[in-house]
Amino acid sequence: MSTVLAAPPQGGTSLERELKYAVPAGKAALVRSIVSAMCRPDPDYPSAIVSTIYYDTPDLALLSEKINSDYLKTKVRLRWYTPDRGAREAFLEIKSRVGALRHKVRVRTPLSAAMLTDLPLDHPALVQVLELAAPLGVPVPPRLMPALLLRYERSRFIEPVSGSRISVDTAIEAVRGNPRLMGNAFHQWLPLAVVEVKGAGNDLPRALTALVHLGARRAAFSKYGAAGVAMLRYSH
Q: Half-sphere exposure of residue 17, counting CA atoms within 13 Å on the CB side?
């Protein structure tokens, strides 16, 4: 593969607190309207469709971490954004969690959104791209392969008092799975939306406490975990 340039890791190189709140999908529009009323849009990337290919081992060790709510978790993923990012390139990301703290590094790849949208998950290019992780200095599990493609709509905000970065993720769908890992799985919609809070606090900003009355519940939630379980449950 050609040489690529490292993109700045979101959240820097130190651990950052990340909280997640799951909300029933039927209340997603109301949640987004409350957040947009109390927060200002992210000045750089206010909205996007986020597409992510998650990687796992042949025995689904990373999915097991999510299902078992392990304190230490690792995600390896290939992610691209449309339509709010002009370049449309994909980033290889390695995300580690220690409880509610996270550390993420990423590298720009030569793969584009146009190439990846319909690329089969067993395509060799999706394994070759993992070679770009070596300069990041973060170990990745051996024998990784693409497991599933997930897609959702993301709206980003800044809560002005706390400075927290807020993301509202809706229309979360598991588009397709790798038959070698997920069996004969088919498309799945997840019945929830997710509010993510990134900042120094240990709870929802006070301005957003109304979300609790709409059923928002703090959880050690993983989109990959929920999507993987749904695909395995309904594979045939």
A: 10
Sole residue written with tokens 């390695």: 94
Query: Could you say which DSSP state residue 81 is in?
Result: E
Residue 188: both structure tokens together: 């799945």
Q: What is the pTM of this model?
A: 0.88
Dump pLDDT digits (tens) for 51-86.
Answer: 999 999 999 999 988 777 655 678 899 999 987 555
Strand ranges (DSSP E) for the chain?
16-24, 40-41, 47-56, 72-82, 89-98, 101-112, 145-158, 165-177, 188-189, 192-199, 217-218
CATH fold, domain 17-234, is mRNA Triphosphatase Cet1; Chain A (3.20.100)
- What gap in Å lies between CA 3 and CA 108, rounded to an integer? 10
Q: Report domain extents, the chain.
A: 17-234
